[in-house]
Amino acid sequence: AQSVSQHNHHVILSEAASLELGCNYSYGGTVNLFWYVQYPGQHLQLLLKYFSGDPLVKGIKGFEAEFIKSKFSFNLRKPSVQWSDTAEYFCAVNGYGGATNKLIFGTGTLLAVQP
Amino acid sequence: KAGVTQTPRYLIKTRGQQVTLSCSPISGHRSVSWYQQTPGQGLQFLFEYFSETQRNKGNFPGRFSGRQFSNSRSEMNVSTLELGDSALYLCASSPSRGGNTDTQYFGPGTRLTVL
Question: B40: Cβ–Cβ under 8 A, 6 or more apart, which residues?
Answer without folding.
Answer: none
